Structures are given as structure tokens and as C-alpha cells.
Amino acid sequence: MVEVTSTATVARPLAVAKARVEPVADTNTAWARLVFSYLAWATAWLLFGTLVGEYLGIKFVIPDIDHIPWLSFGRLRPVHTNTVFWGWSSLAMVGMALYVVPKTSRRKLFSFKLAYVSLALINLSVFVGDLLLMGGINNGGQEYREYIWPVQAVFAVGVILTAYNLIRTIADRDVEEIYISNWYIMGGLLWTIALLVIAYIPWYQQNGISETVIQGFYMHMGVGMWFTPIVLGLTYYTLPRLLNKPIYSYSLGVLAFWTQMVFYSMIGAHHFIFAPIPWWLQTVAIIFSVGMVVTLAAGTGNFLLTMRGSERAIGRSYSVPFILAGTLAYFLFSFQGTLEAFRSFQALWHFTNYTVAHSHLTMYGFVAFLIWGSVYGLVPRMTGHEPSAVWVGIHFWFALIGYLLYCGALMIGGSIQGLNWIAGSPFIHSVTDMVPYWLWRAIGGTLMFLSHLVFAYNVWLMRPRGGASIWATAAQNGAA
Amino acid sequence: MTLDFGKNHWLLFGVSFFGFIALAYVVGIGPAIWVQNHSQPLPGSVAPTHIETEGLKVYISEGCGYCHTQQVRPLEMDAIWGRPSAPGDYAFVQPASAWQPYAPAVLGSERTGPDLSNVGARQASEVWQYMHLYNPRSVVQGSIMPAFPWLFDVKAVAAEGESVVPLPASHAPTGGVVVPNARGRALVAYLLARRQVPIEGYGGAR
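^ Those are the sequences you sent over. The predicted structure of the assembly is below.
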């Protein structure tokens, strides 16, 4: 006779058991501390930047929530975007690159000191830049070029020092081949150095809409020649390592690299379709936006084919699901960008909140998710301390559901805005019709922000320290 | 010395770096130089006054361009904002200072609020502009634009020559009168000067 009560006491775990990190010590303490310093600062900027974003989202619903100039929408919006760009995403991915580049070059990082100087410079630029923005001092440009040039110059020096540090590391590598990750990481650093200099040189931006021509070029490359190549480079290392098999095709990675450089560079002007900038420039941008499908298919295909056959390993990992979600987002939402470049779709979606959805789908669904995949996949292997798998799961689902709600609401609402304008209804209708969608955006944004608190807790659990690391535990088990 | 990108790091990084700069010249620097050299004010347009230039600085400082465009597209749906924008509409824009050494054309990227290319013709009342800036909901129900009370002073009585902003009781401060300060006056002067110059065959100020 089976005891009835026994069924009630069967352990029902909240999540399926996730695989533990293999107990192989592969790094030194100073290195782990360096990478973790980048990650810790990045996380602090993520919390600050998305708290600001959350507050901005609330302002769409309650515009009179405060009347303080430093907190007004027009000043805080660039604080949000610049903080999550230069503070969170940049520091997090550069920090991970400081692990991946030496690892794949089989050599120590050229200079730890330089790396700390870069960290300090980038932090300084974001801190001072944000304060100035809140004080109403900006560059007069548009998106992502709001920090005035002395501030962005400090950031640029940080990037230049990082590039020098990593080039010296790669030049002195102990393998013949430059691993594909380092193509992308160095590409991102070098392109961004060129980009920052080109965007901030004033001589060809002195009158008329010359500044706008540079702005279209800059705002696009600022995303696609900085975040895109570096997070892809990190994934070219993290994914094969976590699945314990080589990347599906090295050649596809090389193809995607060169097409990224040639096609992506040409498409900045698609942010100014129908603007009074030269028409041929807009057409070139649209054509190469279509060309980007080659890059997308090569990059995404490579990752997905690497994952093929490893479904069980993905299910048992707490980090690979982030990479899977980020890879799918990369394909879907960059392809969305290609569609948006067409004049017919621009007529409907340009100037609407659809654009805001698109930037979050890419910078969050793609970039942030791939960063998280690398952080959860690699940091425990550096510090010897794992996060809690349940909390990582909560982070994953809150972030995923949150951004899909946020962006779903704005895509629907943005389309309604555009249709309102095409129908010729009074302008205020395109505002009042958005009210429910702005509410859903704020709800999705809240989930995203909560997931970042969980991420910060997990970062804390992974911090480098003595005590019961995975290696110490393994050694103990071995001795027992 | 090998010509294999995968093995020669100087070749790989050199080609990516200088190749990118070459492409940047084709679609960024080159067109910008061309546009700069061909920038001509429209016939019949007048250079902005000092106060209007100051107003553009306030416009930029407060981030108005995040929700307002100043570009009318050659599309039927944009016809309510005026004629399609021409490069010459922006010819008078000049760099603001040594810290902002670029001509801010403020075309904008979002239209959460209306396009402002021709707002001076569409909404020519100075009083309306002041009320709207002090609190947009005092004149437009359902607006989500931020209020800008820091562009105004609240005084017990208005000084000689100062114009008091009339406000409905629901949005007026509890005591005193509201008068625009220097930044507020500059911004409104700038907004009222947003009037498109007619181009033959294209329409213009209505």
C-alpha cells in the first residue's frame, strides 16, 4: 500500500537542474578582478541608466510627475541612452573582451594597468557627460552624440587605450591564427575610434544640414560598428566553449565580418529617408540595408548551426539560453531594420514610436542578451563562484517578457500613430491613441528593470573572493 | 610577411581600419563637404536675429528635438505641416560655441509632438506659446509635453513692460503672476520665427 502522504512531500524543484560549471581553474585572481571591475561598473550603470529609462516611461503616462529642470524629459532622455550605451553595454562587453582576447591568444593581457586606466576614463566620461546633460549642456547633435566633445574625447581615449592593449596582446599571441572573435572585437574597437574622430571633427559640419549627414552616418555606426561586432566576437568564443564543440563554420564568420564592414558602413543615411539630404545617399543606404541580409544570415546561421544537436546541453545551461535568445533577436530585429529602410515602410513608421521599439529590440534583445550570455557563461569560470540558477532563470524570463511587452506595445502603438497621420486625423489623436500602449510600455519596462536588480544580485554572487569556490568544492569532493 | 588575413594581424587590422575610413569618406565626410559647400539660404529668407539664435540654444538645451521634428517630408501625409523642407531652410544655422562647434540643424527623429518647421505661421500667438510652455495642458487637453515652468518667473506684480502670462486657475500658481524670463522669451521668439519661406510651385507659409 502506497502511503498517500508521500506524494505531498515529493520535492518539486522550481527549475530543472542546471549544469554546474566544470571545476577547472583557468585564470588568475588579478585577471578575474580586472574583468569583474568592468562588469561591476557596467552593472551599476545598467541600474542607473534603466532606472532613468523607467522614469521616462512613466512620464509618458504622468507628464506632470515632476517639474524639476534636471529631471525633465528632454534632458533625461539622452542620459538614459548614453548611460546604457557608453556605461553599461560598452563597459560590459569591453570587460568580457579583456578575458576573451588573451584567452584566445594564449597569452597574458599586455597591460593590466592600461586596462584600469581605460575603465577609469570611460567611467569619468559617462559621469561628467550625464551631469552636463542634466544641466542642459549638450552637443546640439542628435542621438548618441549628445556628450560635448571634451567628454567624448575622454571616452575615445579609453577606447584607444583598450585597442592598443588588445592589439599588443594579439600581436604577441602564442597561436598562428587570429581567432575569429578577435577579428570582430578589434574591428569594433578600430571602427569606433575612426567613427568618433570623424563624427566630432567640426570642419565639415559648419552650416546647413552637413551636420545631419554626419549624424545619420554616426548614429548608425555607433550601434552597428561598436556593439554589434564586439558582442558577436564574444559569442564566437563563448558559444563553442559552453557547448564544448567548435564553431560550425569559420568561413561564414569571415564572410559576415567583411560584409559587416562594407555593407553596414554604407547605410547610415537610412535614418534620414525623405529628409532634404542628397537623395542618392538615401538610395545607397536602402540598397546596402538589403545587403545586410547576407551578413545576418551568415552570422545567425553560424550560431544556430553550432547549437544544432546540442538541445539538451542548451536546456541544462543557464547561460546558453541568453545566447539563443540574443541570436534570434539579432536576426529578426536587424531584418526588421532592413524592412524599415524601405521608403514605403518609412512613410508609415518614421517618426513614430515604432523606432523606439526597434532600438530596444536590437540594443536589448540582441546586444544585452548576448552580453548576459557571455557574463553568465564565462565569469563563473574566472572567479570560481556561480550565480543561483533560479535567479538567473528569473532574470531571463523577466527581461525577455519585459522587452517583448515593451516593444510589442510600441510597435502596435507606433503603427497606429503612423496610420493616424496617413488618415489625416487631428494630430492629438496620435497622442491620445497611444495612452494604453505607453502604459503597457511602462509595465514591460518595469519587468526589465526588475530583471536588472536580479542580474545585479547574480553579479554579486559571482564576485571573486576566497571561500567555497567551485574549484575548492571539487578538490574537497575529490579528497573525500 | 604573409598576406593571409587570418595570420597577419597588421594586414587584417590595417585593412579594416583604413578601409572603413575610405567608406566613411564616400558616405559621410564627402557628402557632408558637398552639402556644406552648396548650402544657400532660400531667396527671400532673412537671417535669424540675436534673440532667435539664443532661442535655438534653449531649444537644444531642453531637448525639444527629441519629440519635435523640423523636417517636412515630400509625402501627402506631411502636407499639413507645410511644404517639403529644402536644404536652404537650414542655411542660417551656425555652430553655437566652441563647446558645440557643429551647426545644429535639429531635423529631429521622432514626432511625438507636432512638426515645428512652420509653427510660427500655424500658431502665431505669443500668448498661446507662453501658456503652452508654462503648462501644455493649460491649452491642449491630452497633451503629454513636459511643462517648462523654469522658463518663467513667478512675481508678486509684473514690472513695467513685462507681459503677464494669462493662465486658467487650474494651472496658475497659488500667488503672484507668471512672466517669461530671458530663456523663455528667446525660445518663443525662435518658435515664432519658424515660418517657411515660400518656394514657387512648392507652397509655403499659409
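Chain B has two domains: 7-38, 50-192. The first helix of chain B runs from residue 9 to 37.

Shout if you want it in another format.
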